Amino acid sequence: MPKPERTPRAWSSHAGLRAAGVLAMLIAITIVVVLNAFAQQTPSKGLTAKTTFTPWPAGSRISASGGISRSVTVVGVGDSVTSGSACNCETFVGLYATSLASQRGVETSSVNLGVPGWTSSQLLQSLTQPGAFHDQVAKADVLLVTIGANDLLPLEEKQSGGCTATCYGPLVNSVGHNVGLIVAAAQAAHPNHPPTILVTDYWNVFEDGDVGSAENGTSFQSWSDVLTRAESAAICNAARGAGANCVSLYAPFKGNGSKNPTTLLAADGDHPNSAGHQLIASTLLASTPLPLP
Questions:
Q1: Selecting from 3.40.50.300, 3.40.50.620, 3.40.50.1110, 3.40.50.1000, what CATH number does the domain 65-286 have?
Q2: Is the pLDDT of residue 125 over 60?
Q3: What pLDDT is recorded for position 37?
Q4: pLDDT tier at 69, thresholds 50, 70, 90
């Protein structure tokens, strides 16, 4: 059954006058409120409105997203792997900085302080004494550390069967101890702005791939693999314990240990080639935490 249509209420002349009066009063109140608010935001006559200008921080730029980002300095320290021995190519330090700029939308610069032959003790000494090396590390926003293989060189001449964990343990533990001190020294170099620190291990502390197998034999290669894994554990435990990030290079180069890394190594079978440096850079980039310092 259809509902009857509702008939609007008729307006009387008195009701219309009352409504008009109320409406006029509301309009007047609104105008007063708006004028009062405007008067509070506008400087008084005779006073000059003061605008504060904050300059961009030194080394900053406007990013594509509209925010401000400063230039990020990447510093690499370590041994001949860091310095790029036997490669004659751009090292992972520079490659990492370039990729970081592209991926994160920041400006970057890089400094490679790798020294062929350096041990963890030599790196620690340079970090803890005044000088150009210490000063350059203190400028790092991101510090890349690869050190420790040369510490184990005294073991290379030992027969693999004659140097078990009891034999190599003290040297491995010493590397771990020094890595922890290296991280602490790098953090102390600029306590107000500690860097993001990425510490790597190794795929092998000695020769590897086809060259390693041909020159040392399978027995030695198996032993050096065990030794490398032991040092990697010591390096990573120390790095993480000191507040750094440990980035393993073992799996990228060798998988679970069965992968032949020859295509990533220079002709000496010991140092990374161009493809190896590219792989190290991409592995470091994938492990870089956010936000950057």
A1: 3.40.50.1110
A2: yes
A3: 43
A4: low
Give burial (CB, 10 Å; 0-12/13-18/19+) of 25.
exposed
Average pLDDT value for the chain: 82
Q: Please report the pLDDT score of residue 293 as a whole number.
A: 66
Residues 175, 236: Cα–Cα separation, whole Å: 11
* Residue 200 neighbours by CB distance under 10 Å: 28
Q: Does residue 95 surpass a pLDDT of 50?
A: yes
Q: Which residues pair with 265 in a beta bridge?
A: 272
Closest CA to 96 of 73, 69, 68: 73
pLDDT exceeds 60 at position 9: no
Whether pLDDT at 7 is above 50: no
Q: Say which range, 78-92, 157-171, 190-204, has the weakest mean pLDDT.
A: 157-171
